[in-house]
Amino acid sequence: MKKHIFIIIVLILFIVPLTQGILVGDFPKIDVTLNSQSPDPVEPGQIVTVKFQIENGGRELYDDAIVTIVPKFPFKLYGDTAIRNIGKLRAGSTGADSVVVEYKLKVDDDAIEGESEIELKVDWGENSISYKNDEFVIDIQTHDAVLEISSITSDPSEVPPGGTAEISFLVKNLADSLLKDINFKLDLDDDDSPLAPYRSSSERILAQLKSGYQNTLVFNVIAEPDAVGGLYKIPLDITYNDEKGNVYTVSDILAVNVGSAPSVRPFIKKSTVLQEKKEGVVTLSIVNAGTTDVKLLELYIEPSDDYQLISTTDYFYIGDVDSDDTETEEIDIYINNRVDVLHLPVKLQYHDANNKPYQQHFELEMNLYSSSQLKRFGVLEQSKAGIYFFLLILIVVGIILYRNYKKNPQEFVQKWQKRIPFLKKKKK
Question: Distance of CA 190 to CAs 13, 158, 186, 303, Å?
Answer without folding.
Answer: 91, 19, 11, 51
